[in-house]
Amino acid sequence: MLTAQKRKFAVALMSGMSQKDAAVKAGYSEKSARSKGSQLAKDPEVIAFIERKKKEVIETDDVPACRQDVYTPAVNTTEKNDAPKAPAVAGAYDDPLKFLMAVMNDATEEIDVRKDAAKAMLPYIHPKKGETGKKEARNAAAKAASGASKFGAMAPPKLVVNNKG
């Protein structure tokens, strides 16, 4: 069965990469990529996949479709739909977090740029679990261990002062 990794290797090999580079691109370790690339190049499934892809004929039109005038009512409307304007970014934000928030929410920006802004902003809004200092972690572990075990340290006795006499 042709796995996703083998398919990626075959496609990378067909694009002109060396066997080692194709193996690395497919997700194999760089240390073993040379031997794995050689092994996969001899794999019957990979060879059959490459042969199938080489035999496929890609149909092309004589006239490119991008140059033809095509009537599509949803696109070719007489009224203009104004796209939302991007906020003026240069010098508008004093806080980097607000700038990243604006980039993330900007609908005119590419989705990859918006994702990168969200990733950069994430640690400041949602800290990782367990992101405390060493002392706090040690104290929390000690507290959890003492309360969960019957052999933990006992609470000190309560002292009651009796001043009657």
Helix content: 40-55%
- Rg, please? 32 Å
Taking pLDDT < 50 over at least 5 consecutive residues as the criterion, the unreliable ranges are none
Which CATH first-tier class of the domain at 4-55 would you pick? Mainly Alpha
Q: Give the full name of the CATH homologous superfamily of the domain at 4-55.
A: Terminase, small subunit, N-terminal DNA-binding domain, HTH motif
Distance between the termini: 92 Å
The rough form would be described as: elongated
Strand content: under 5%
Structural class of the secondary elements? mainly alpha
Within the CATH hierarchy, at the fold level, what is the topology of the domain at 4-55? Arc Repressor Mutant, subunit A
**Quaternary structure state of the chains depicted:** single chain
- The helix tally amounts to 7
Report the sheet with the most strands, covering strand number, pairing sense and barrel closure. Answer: none
Tell me the CATH architecture of the domain at 4-55: Orthogonal Bundle
The run of helices and strands is: HHHHHHH
Mean pLDDT: 77
SS elements, strand count: 0
InterPro entries: Terminase_Gp1_N_sf (IPR038713), Terminase_ssu (IPR005335)
Organism: Franconibacter pulveris
Pfam families: Terminase_2 (PF03592)
Biased composition (Low complexity): 139-149
Question: Could you please describe the fold and organization of this structure?
Answer:
The protein is an all-alpha fold. Among the domains are: 4-55, Terminase, small subunit, N-terminal DNA-binding domain, HTH motif (Arc Repressor Mutant, subunit A); 90-132, no CATH class. Helices cover 48% and strands 0% of the residues. The chain is built from seven helices and no strands. The longest helix is centred in the C-terminal third of the chain and has 15 residues, at 111-125. The chain starts with a helix and ends in a 17-residue tail after the last helix. 9% of the residues are buried. The model has no long low-confidence stretch (mean pLDDT 77). This is Phage terminase small subunit. InterPro entries: Terminase_Gp1_N_sf (IPR038713), Terminase_ssu (IPR005335). Residues 128-149 are annotated as: Disordered.
